[in-house]
Amino acid sequence: MDFRLTEEQLERRKEFYKVCEELDKKKPKSYIGFESQFHDEEGWNFHRLCAREFAKRGWLALGWPKEYGGSGTMMDKVMLAEARGYYDLPGIDIFGVAMLAPTLLAAASEEIKREFLPKIASAEIMFCELWSEPNAGSDLAALTSSAIRKGDEFIVNGQKTWNTGAHFADWAFGVYKSDPNAKKHHNLTFMLCDMKSKGITVKGIPYMDGAHVYNEVYLDDVHMPAKYIIGQENEGWAVVNVLAGFERSNIDMVMGLVKALEEIVKFCNTNKRNGRLLSQDALIRNKLADFASSIEAVRTLAYRVADQQNRNEMGLMDAAAVKIFASELLEKFGQLSTDILGPYGQVKQSKFAKLGGIAEYNYQACFVPIVSMGTNEIQRNIIAWYGLGLPRMK
Amino acid sequence: MDLRFTEQQEILKKSAKDFLTKECPKAKVRELEKDAKGYDPALWQKMGELGWLGFNIPEDYEGMGYSFEDLTMHIEEVGKNILPGPYISTVVNTFAVVAEGSDEQKKEILPKVSNGNCILTLAWLEENGLYDASGITLKATHKGNDYHLNGTKVFVDSAHVADTMIVVARTKDGTGDDGITLFLVDAKSAGIKTEVIPTIALDHLCEVTFKDVAVPAKNVLGKVDKGWPIVQMLIRKGSILKSAESLGGLQAVVDMTVAYSKERVQYDRPIGAFQALQHKMSDMWINMGTSKYLLYEAAWLESEGMPSAKEASMTKAYINEAYKLVTALGVKLHGGIGTSSDHDVPLYYRRAKAADTVYGSTDYHRELVAQQIGMK
Fold first, then answer.
1. Does A268 touch chain B (CB under 8 A)?
2. Across all residues in chain B, what is the average pLDDT?
3. Which residue of A15, A200, A231, A390 has the lowest C-beta tally within 10 Å?
4. Same domain, A211 and A284
5. Residue where a domain stops, chosen among A244, A272, A294
6. A141 contact B CB<8A
7. Do A240 and A256 fall within a single domain?
């Protein structure tokens, strides 16, 4: 077993951290934490700024084959995620760079790859996902949005929901029912579409803190060119599985926790209550040490996932475990940090806030990673069914 | 980075598994819990022949000279099976002799341990229950060529059958780190009285009283008054290795529980088909997954001679809790049978509590972690 990075990797990592540290200085004040790129124009512009800086260095195409403009290794991708997570920076389009690009590389036609990969790598276009529907969440195959083929086009009707960032995205990938008579899992088509297409209406769903992250997307007679099908017509479910099968190390989320811990330790070292530093409170020491140990546990497991990815091995259970554990650790941290701040734990980002209001923010924002990308309950099913070999729910 | 076991580690794991499956079935584990000695001398001899007792002892002293990382992987496998007796404590304690012993002490003790002829135990904790230096009050008074030891130690692993004890004593007034000295003491010396304490794992931890026990000055291990850093080293290495044993036990319980849930049929289906149980088993698995690489990282750092105190304490604090949690779930998911002493799961559940007290409790290690993450 060897946890050591090579000299070359350490150099690369230094570079990733340096660029991220510089970008961190340009972060607008309103950018409070992860997902803030979707909150307003200022956040989105910062996201695009970071993305362009990454694109300039080829960092949006890390680990891709050279023929599509790729450079670097999977490990580089992991180390960039680490640095970005530590500084809580956007700049990686989770839908375009993280999800769609590897799916295109694995399942799309040469033509599609040539058209879209360069645009993703250069940060020219940002994607959103038209996936869940009001009655098809975790049970995605129950979706009903219809795509009826007419010559070279599909006419798409229906409603999508929980579409993160759809109010800013340029393009979308989505999945629609294209054959009402075919058997389940052979009746869906996976397609790309321009979000400026006629008939698309985006309506925000306010998050519990009032922030604009999610949307509903209404599709009324939207014409989608059939040339933007990924994979085969009516075989979109297979593409969905390809996309879902890319394990993410989630090291960025973990590093966000590392930074959060550093900040709260600093706060406890410099703030007194009742004449005594918070850091000298035995209960706070115990809880933060527990938190630190849990972070290190999931950090090492995230590296295990990365190490497997780097060797093209599957790490389904480990990846699911990291996703569950890290997101629930964030939930716990939201509670712990608001507790430590006492009555100030409830204060929003403002002149009244301590720690810039991040505690109050995390107390609510933590549910985004918990319920998205396959809810943690779905992730537990994955571990139970595919990992432990327990009987599948019908 | 390569987070896979080496080929040698795979072989070591397999041979540990094969040996213990054959030599130490659960019937023997139960038998040894009730046995007066608490370990099987014949099995101990075989372990000596296989090199298990000299795993980390340099070849110059008739040991195997394996790395700390290899030892960790080996102990993890031992933990899966359960091996009653003072195996882990003996192995951990040899580190003190290897690192601090004089040539003479090394030649005297290490080959004996390695060949299965010396149980080496550590007399450390006292009735105050403190894990830090302030807990050490047993007095060693210099008289002529000897030191005289007076006081009481508790939770001394297998002191009643031990050959040599490393006794942690105070040689200078005070409560700090300074003034603590380690002695290599013949366990059969006059003035030593041992009594087995009934403990949750029935693992033969003893109370040991020292009444004017004369120990030759040449038996000081390391430097006079400067013994506490040696104890800290044993806490660090012991924490990693005890956690490895715990992780092995934790994995065994996950495997047993999953297997049982596939066999046990209620409401016309295996109980493992119920999501309420599936998600609990997933959580057991997550506890295992997150424990593993935390442990391996600490073991690797220790093996490479890099600073590992923070990771060792994180590992012990984390796995202490994970082991208790997972074994408790294991008991509950087995239902009634899981609560019987005839069943194997409670063997692990009881050991999870015992393990958490060895080489520092969760709260003790969390305090060390708090210091390590820079809390003032």
1. yes
2. 97
3. A15
4. no
5. A244
6. no
7. no
Residue with tokens 């956040």: A43
- Inter-chain residue contact B292 with A268, CB threshold 8 Å: no
Both tokens of A27, joined, read 């972060």
Cα separation of B191 and A134, whole Å? 79
Give the best residue of B265, B290, B325, B368 to mutate against chain A (max A CB count within 10 A): B290
| pLDDT, tens digit, 9 for 90 and up, residues A134-177 | 999 988 889 999 999 999 999 999 999 999 999 999 999 999 99
Do A132 and A231 have their domain in common?
yes
Nearest CB to B1 within list A3, A297, A390: A3
Structure tokens at B364: 């003790």
In a shared domain, residues A234 and A259: no
Phi, psi at A185, each rounded to 5°: 75, 0
Is A213 inside any structural domain?
A: yes
User: Which residues of chain B neighbour A254 with C-beta distances below 8 Å?
Assistant: none
pLDDT tens, position by position, B192-221: 999 999 999 999 999 999 999 999 999 999
Provide the pLDDT for residue A314. Answer: 76
Contact A276, A235 (CB under 8 A): no
The pTM of the whole model exceeds 0.90: yes
Beta-sheet pairing, A127-130 with A171-177: parallel
SS3 B351: helix
Measure CB to CB from residue A380 to each of B279, B297, B365 and give the nearest one.
B279
Contact B1 A2 (CB under 8 A): yes
From chain B residues 42-101, the ones with a CB under 8 A of any chain A CB are 69
Q: Do A189 and A300 reside in the same domain of the chain?
A: no
Question: Within this chain, do residues A238 and A308 fall inside the same structural domain, yes or no?
Answer: no
CATH code of the domain covering residue A366: 1.20.140.10
Name every chain B residue with its beta carbon within 8 A of the beta carbon of A9: 1
Q: Is residue A119 part of a domain?
A: no
Q: Is the ipTM of this complex over 0.90?
A: yes
Sorted by where each starts, the structural domains of chain B and their CATH numbers stand as 7-119 (1.10.540.10), 121-226 (2.40.110.10), 229-372 (1.20.140.10)
Please check whether residue B259 touches A, CB under 8 A: no
Q: Can you read off the two tokens belonging to residue B3?
A: 């987070």
Say yes or no: A167 and A265 in one domain: no
CATH number, domain containing residue A87: 1.10.540
Nearest to A1 among B69, B269, B273 (CB): B69
